[in-house]
Task: structure prediction
Amino acid sequence: MRLVTFNCRGHQSIGKVIGQQVIDLPASDASLPRTMRELLQAGPAAMARARAVDASVGVSYPLADVRLDAPVPNPSKYLAIGMNYRKHVAEAIAAGIKVPDSQVWFNKQVSCVHGPYEPVQMPRASDKLDYEAELGVIIGRRCRHVSVEDAPSVVAGYVVCNDVSVRDWQMRSPTMMLGKSFNTHGPFGPWIVTADEVPDPHALQLRMKLNGEVRQEISTGEMIYDIWAQIAYLSTVMTLEPGDVLATGTPSGVGVGMTPPSFVKVGDVMRVEIDGIGHIESVVVAEPAGG
Ligand code: MG
Result:
């Protein structure tokens, strides 16, 4: 299934996309929850009911007539791993970042979560705006101390992420958090492709295009720490909740790694594509008065 959170004429709901139609799940089956987090929390029985909604009799809208929001608009956590592709590590070293010998995690504050096709803001506080194309993992059930072997069972599905970064603010604190958390800098989507439809999440081709020019391209099989190792490591520390978002790292080709560095400007279009998942696309706009 391709699960979406969508907004139609000011009304937000969750749905599944079939072809060019969005089937409104709670409007088609009143037993289904109204938000993605609640649907994931409700577990396999609810997911089976969502699958069973018959597109021919359900309440549906043309995909073109709705606005897609982030599939999980209000995750409890949005965590991202840094320096998880070898060539990107080389870029980071060149940019003056010390690379430790364990997984490097940081927070994107959940207030940065943003729709897959909504404009991304150039902050008033910086012109060092950059992109990071990444495969995103959506957690499907509450879990702690998950083994590498069991990790696939806690994944609801996959999304396309742009870990939008403000490089000068990123370097101001060792946790990187401030430069990763500006408002609008967490676009992801356009939908959650459920894990049953992604036979191998480590064999997906990922690419980032800036104004149509390919800047990043790699197979997710090139990750240093794979998705299962990431979930095992994080869940050693904390409980992961349904709807939590993990961004699994970006490959080489970011603007800060170019010689000279090449940052994103107002009017640029950032597009991230993952074959078999979908794409997200954001035009860069100036931060409006009032933020
Ligand atoms: Mg990143």
